[in-house]
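Action item from last week, closing it out:
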Amino acid sequence: MDSQTRRFKLKETFDVVSVGYDNPALRFFIHAAGHLADGMAFKGHEHILDVACGTGNVSLICAERLGNGHVTGVDLSEGMLQQARVKATSRQLINVTFQCADLDAMDFDGKLFDGACCGFGVFFMPDMEAALSAIAHHVRSGGAIGISSFTGAVMEPLATAFIERIQAYGVDIPPLSWKRLDEVVKHQALYAVVGINQVETRQVQVGYDLNGFDEWWDIVWFSGFRGMLNQLSDSELAQFQQDHKQEIERFAVNGKIGLNVEVLISVGRKP
């Protein structure tokens, strides 16, 4: 799959799932956003760029902490951005703006930001080194550049059960992008190649217990897994959901299903 096709499919998937991306079952995104904002160590006046901002989880938390600053969130999916704007309005945040733009086409008229972040976005980029370099290009010297990703154990054993079940339907399984940045050494190597120094990487657990299969289904239905489910016919989808429910419920303890979400947070400084 060429990069243009991959970009289109990614945009298409996230436009579709945008209406449910803030479903409570996916609250690990909010927890992780707080950890990324913590790592940026704001003083309160900075102007921050949030790349691949999605529905604005990181942007909004940063905006709340930047009383005298501003956040510019950019994303490829207009559907996700619409959700972000609604949330910003509901929280009465006037120091955050959102715009639809591709990373390769961002143009800020030469303006440099005090820092930049990208939550769970870099591993989707075909060329991660070029992506992080492009982000750093818009940051002034000394500015913080933070990213987050999942570890390889994310959502296990539930994720493996999902993949193995859906493979039986002949579904095209895309590369599991998060595995490209699922270890501390991979984070450190990426920053080193780009030339960003003073890098600190830490691992945090933002998982929780799900209230049964329905919450797990919300996660797969309103996330990147949706692209695989969309390849099924209506009858196949119904059968898949029924069979998958039985295998997922085997992991339940007292009606609760543990969701393991280990996250890596890295923050470095542009020389």
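Closing note: Residues 3-17 form the longest helix (15 residues).
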